[in-house]
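Standup notes
- DV: blocked on the single-chain target, sequence here:
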Amino acid sequence: MYDVSTRRRALALVAQGRSLNSVSRETGVSRAAIRSWTVRLEPLPRMAVPPPPGPPENEAAYSYLLGLYLGDGCISTHPRGNGYYLRIACANSWPGLIDACEIAMRAINPSGTAYHVQAQGYVSVVGYNPHWPDLFPQHGPGKKHERPIILEPWQQKIVDAHPWKFIRGLIHSDGCRITNWTTRLVAGERKRYEYPRYFFTNVSEDIRQLYTDTLDNLGIEWTHCKRDGNPYNISVAKKASVALMDTHVGPKY
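- DV (later): unblocked, structure below
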Protein backbone atom coordinates (compact mmCIF):
# COMPACT_ATOMS: atom_id res chain seq x y z
CA MET A 1 0.00 0.00 0.00
CA TYR A 2 2.91 2.33 0.78
CA ASP A 3 6.17 2.55 -1.13
CA VAL A 4 9.57 1.92 0.45
CA SER A 5 10.58 5.59 0.62
CA THR A 6 7.38 6.48 2.49
CA ARG A 7 7.97 3.67 4.97
CA ARG A 8 11.56 4.73 5.53
CA ARG A 9 10.53 8.33 6.09
CA ALA A 10 7.86 7.35 8.59
CA LEU A 11 10.21 5.07 10.54
CA ALA A 12 12.91 7.74 10.59
CA LEU A 13 10.44 10.25 12.04
CA VAL A 14 9.40 7.73 14.71
CA ALA A 15 13.08 7.21 15.52
CA GLN A 16 13.33 10.94 16.21
CA GLY A 17 10.82 10.49 19.02
CA ARG A 18 7.76 11.74 17.16
CA SER A 19 4.33 10.41 18.13
CA LEU A 20 2.40 8.08 15.82
CA ASN A 21 -0.27 10.77 15.41
CA SER A 22 2.31 13.36 14.37
CA VAL A 23 4.01 11.03 11.90
CA SER A 24 0.67 9.95 10.47
CA ARG A 25 -0.40 13.56 9.86
CA GLU A 26 2.90 14.46 8.18
CA THR A 27 3.26 11.38 5.98
CA GLY A 28 -0.37 10.43 5.29
CA VAL A 29 0.32 6.90 6.53
CA SER A 30 -2.22 5.36 8.89
CA ARG A 31 -1.28 4.94 12.55
CA ALA A 32 -2.00 1.22 12.28
CA ALA A 33 0.51 0.81 9.45
CA ILE A 34 3.20 2.78 11.27
CA ARG A 35 2.60 0.75 14.45
CA SER A 36 2.89 -2.52 12.52
CA TRP A 37 6.19 -1.39 10.96
CA THR A 38 7.69 -0.44 14.32
CA VAL A 39 6.55 -3.70 15.93
CA ARG A 40 8.47 -5.63 13.28
CA LEU A 41 11.68 -3.84 14.26
CA GLU A 42 12.60 -6.41 16.89
CA PRO A 43 16.11 -6.10 18.34
CA LEU A 44 18.71 -8.15 16.54
CA PRO A 45 20.20 -11.04 18.49
CA ARG A 46 23.65 -10.16 19.76
CA MET A 47 25.19 -12.83 17.55
CA ALA A 48 23.70 -11.07 14.49
CA VAL A 49 25.34 -7.72 15.25
CA PRO A 50 28.57 -7.38 13.26
CA PRO A 51 31.80 -6.67 15.16
CA PRO A 52 32.92 -3.05 15.52
CA PRO A 53 34.52 -1.78 12.32
CA GLY A 54 38.05 -0.52 12.08
CA PRO A 55 38.95 2.83 10.49
CA PRO A 56 37.02 3.32 7.23
CA GLU A 57 38.71 2.33 4.01
CA ASN A 58 37.40 5.33 2.04
CA GLU A 59 39.35 7.95 3.98
CA ALA A 60 38.47 10.87 1.68
CA ALA A 61 34.73 10.25 2.08
CA TYR A 62 35.15 9.85 5.83
CA SER A 63 37.08 13.12 6.19
CA TYR A 64 34.26 14.97 4.41
CA LEU A 65 31.53 13.21 6.41
CA LEU A 66 33.39 13.93 9.66
CA GLY A 67 33.30 17.65 8.84
CA LEU A 68 29.57 17.45 8.14
CA TYR A 69 28.95 15.49 11.35
CA LEU A 70 30.84 17.95 13.55
CA GLY A 71 28.76 20.78 12.14
CA ASP A 72 25.24 19.47 11.54
CA GLY A 73 25.25 15.80 12.53
CA CYS A 74 23.89 13.73 15.37
CA ILE A 75 23.64 10.07 16.31
CA SER A 76 20.53 8.61 17.93
CA THR A 77 19.61 5.17 19.21
CA HIS A 78 17.38 2.89 17.15
CA PRO A 79 13.87 2.62 18.69
CA ARG A 80 14.45 -1.06 19.46
CA GLY A 81 17.90 -0.47 20.86
CA ASN A 82 19.80 -2.59 18.34
CA GLY A 83 21.78 0.10 16.57
CA TYR A 84 22.06 3.78 15.72
CA TYR A 85 20.98 6.35 13.17
CA LEU A 86 23.40 8.95 11.87
CA ARG A 87 21.62 12.11 10.71
CA ILE A 88 23.13 15.05 8.88
CA ALA A 89 20.84 18.08 8.56
CA CYS A 90 21.15 19.79 5.15
CA ALA A 91 19.32 22.93 4.06
CA ASN A 92 16.82 22.53 1.21
CA SER A 93 18.67 25.34 -0.60
CA TRP A 94 21.66 23.14 -1.43
CA PRO A 95 20.57 19.99 -3.33
CA GLY A 96 24.14 19.32 -4.47
CA LEU A 97 25.30 19.28 -0.86
CA ILE A 98 22.51 16.84 0.04
CA ASP A 99 23.63 14.50 -2.74
CA ALA A 100 27.30 14.80 -1.73
CA CYS A 101 26.39 13.99 1.87
CA GLU A 102 24.41 10.91 0.86
CA ILE A 103 27.22 9.66 -1.38
CA ALA A 104 29.74 10.03 1.46
CA MET A 105 27.44 8.33 3.97
CA ARG A 106 26.85 5.40 1.63
CA ALA A 107 30.61 5.08 1.14
CA ILE A 108 31.24 4.92 4.91
CA ASN A 109 28.21 2.94 6.06
CA PRO A 110 29.17 -0.77 5.96
CA SER A 111 25.68 -1.55 4.65
CA GLY A 112 26.17 0.98 1.83
CA THR A 113 22.80 2.59 2.57
CA ALA A 114 21.55 6.13 3.24
CA TYR A 115 18.32 7.96 2.49
CA HIS A 116 16.60 11.36 2.75
CA VAL A 117 13.93 12.44 5.22
CA GLN A 118 12.24 15.76 4.44
CA ALA A 119 11.72 17.90 7.54
CA GLN A 120 10.44 21.44 8.00
CA GLY A 121 12.89 23.58 6.05
CA TYR A 122 15.65 20.99 5.74
CA VAL A 123 16.52 17.45 4.68
CA SER A 124 18.01 14.85 7.00
CA VAL A 125 20.38 12.43 5.30
CA VAL A 126 20.04 9.28 7.40
CA GLY A 127 21.92 6.03 7.65
CA TYR A 128 21.50 3.06 10.02
CA ASN A 129 24.54 1.29 11.45
CA PRO A 130 25.03 -0.69 14.69
CA HIS A 131 28.41 0.98 15.19
CA TRP A 132 28.16 4.68 14.28
CA PRO A 133 29.58 5.68 17.70
CA ASP A 134 32.70 3.66 16.90
CA LEU A 135 33.12 5.57 13.66
CA PHE A 136 32.28 8.92 15.27
CA PRO A 137 33.52 8.67 18.88
CA GLN A 138 32.73 12.36 19.40
CA HIS A 139 29.13 11.21 19.93
CA GLY A 140 27.87 11.78 23.44
CA PRO A 141 25.04 13.23 25.53
CA GLY A 142 24.17 16.89 25.21
CA LYS A 143 25.30 19.52 22.74
CA LYS A 144 28.71 19.35 21.08
CA HIS A 145 29.82 22.74 22.42
CA GLU A 146 29.10 21.58 25.97
CA ARG A 147 31.52 18.63 25.86
CA PRO A 148 35.11 18.13 24.66
CA ILE A 149 35.47 17.37 20.95
CA ILE A 150 38.83 15.70 20.37
CA LEU A 151 39.78 13.52 17.40
CA GLU A 152 41.10 10.03 17.97
CA PRO A 153 44.62 9.47 16.57
CA TRP A 154 43.23 7.41 13.66
CA GLN A 155 40.79 10.24 12.84
CA GLN A 156 43.52 12.87 12.94
CA LYS A 157 45.62 10.72 10.61
CA ILE A 158 42.74 10.68 8.10
CA VAL A 159 42.22 14.45 8.39
CA ASP A 160 45.94 15.03 7.88
CA ALA A 161 45.82 12.86 4.75
CA HIS A 162 42.66 14.53 3.38
CA PRO A 163 42.56 18.03 4.90
CA TRP A 164 40.60 19.68 2.10
CA LYS A 165 37.80 17.11 2.38
CA PHE A 166 37.56 17.91 6.10
CA ILE A 167 37.52 21.66 5.45
CA ARG A 168 34.88 21.19 2.76
CA GLY A 169 32.67 19.22 5.13
CA LEU A 170 32.97 21.89 7.82
CA ILE A 171 32.19 24.70 5.35
CA HIS A 172 29.26 22.75 3.89
CA SER A 173 27.82 22.38 7.39
CA ASP A 174 28.62 25.60 9.25
CA GLY A 175 30.29 27.80 6.67
CA CYS A 176 29.64 29.88 3.59
CA ARG A 177 31.29 31.84 0.80
CA ILE A 178 30.02 35.41 0.52
CA THR A 179 30.88 38.60 -1.34
CA ASN A 180 31.77 41.57 0.84
CA TRP A 181 32.03 45.12 -0.38
CA THR A 182 33.61 48.39 0.68
CA THR A 183 34.42 51.72 -0.93
CA ARG A 184 37.76 53.28 -1.90
CA LEU A 185 38.90 56.61 -3.19
CA VAL A 186 40.31 56.20 -6.69
CA ALA A 187 41.59 59.40 -8.35
CA GLY A 188 39.43 61.42 -5.98
CA GLU A 189 36.31 59.41 -6.74
CA ARG A 190 34.80 56.94 -4.28
CA LYS A 191 34.22 53.56 -5.92
CA ARG A 192 32.66 50.35 -4.73
CA TYR A 193 35.04 47.43 -4.27
CA GLU A 194 33.84 43.82 -3.89
CA TYR A 195 35.80 40.84 -2.64
CA PRO A 196 34.93 37.23 -1.69
CA ARG A 197 35.52 35.69 1.71
CA TYR A 198 34.74 32.49 3.57
CA PHE A 199 33.09 32.33 6.97
CA PHE A 200 32.94 29.42 9.39
CA THR A 201 30.73 29.78 12.47
CA ASN A 202 30.56 27.29 15.33
CA VAL A 203 29.95 27.75 19.06
CA SER A 204 32.31 24.89 19.99
CA GLU A 205 35.81 26.14 20.68
CA ASP A 206 37.18 22.65 20.03
CA ILE A 207 35.55 22.40 16.59
CA ARG A 208 36.77 25.89 15.65
CA GLN A 209 40.25 24.82 16.74
CA LEU A 210 40.10 21.73 14.51
CA TYR A 211 39.12 24.01 11.62
CA THR A 212 41.84 26.61 12.19
CA ASP A 213 44.54 23.97 12.87
CA THR A 214 43.72 22.38 9.52
CA LEU A 215 43.78 25.79 7.81
CA ASP A 216 47.21 26.45 9.35
CA ASN A 217 48.52 23.12 8.02
CA LEU A 218 47.27 24.12 4.55
CA GLY A 219 48.87 27.58 4.72
CA ILE A 220 45.51 29.38 4.74
CA GLU A 221 45.44 32.79 6.46
CA TRP A 222 42.45 33.38 8.72
CA THR A 223 41.18 35.80 11.36
CA HIS A 224 38.59 35.82 14.13
CA CYS A 225 35.48 37.93 13.57
CA LYS A 226 33.59 38.33 16.84
CA ARG A 227 29.82 37.98 17.06
CA ASP A 228 28.26 39.64 20.09
CA GLY A 229 31.73 39.82 21.56
CA ASN A 230 32.41 36.10 21.04
CA PRO A 231 34.90 34.70 18.48
CA TYR A 232 32.42 32.33 16.88
CA ASN A 233 33.26 33.39 13.30
CA ILE A 234 36.43 32.44 11.45
CA SER A 235 37.08 34.54 8.33
CA VAL A 236 39.29 33.77 5.33
CA ALA A 237 39.60 36.90 3.19
CA LYS A 238 43.17 37.13 1.89
CA LYS A 239 43.18 36.85 -1.90
CA ALA A 240 45.61 33.93 -2.15
CA SER A 241 43.85 32.00 0.63
CA VAL A 242 40.42 32.58 -0.90
CA ALA A 243 41.76 31.34 -4.23
CA LEU A 244 42.88 28.09 -2.60
CA MET A 245 39.53 27.73 -0.85
CA ASP A 246 37.77 28.30 -4.17
CA THR A 247 39.85 25.57 -5.79
CA HIS A 248 39.17 22.94 -3.11
CA VAL A 249 35.87 24.00 -1.51
CA GLY A 250 33.89 26.58 -3.48
CA PRO A 251 30.41 27.90 -2.70
CA LYS A 252 27.56 25.64 -1.64
CA TYR A 253 25.36 24.43 -4.46
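- Follow-up: The mean pLDDT is 86.
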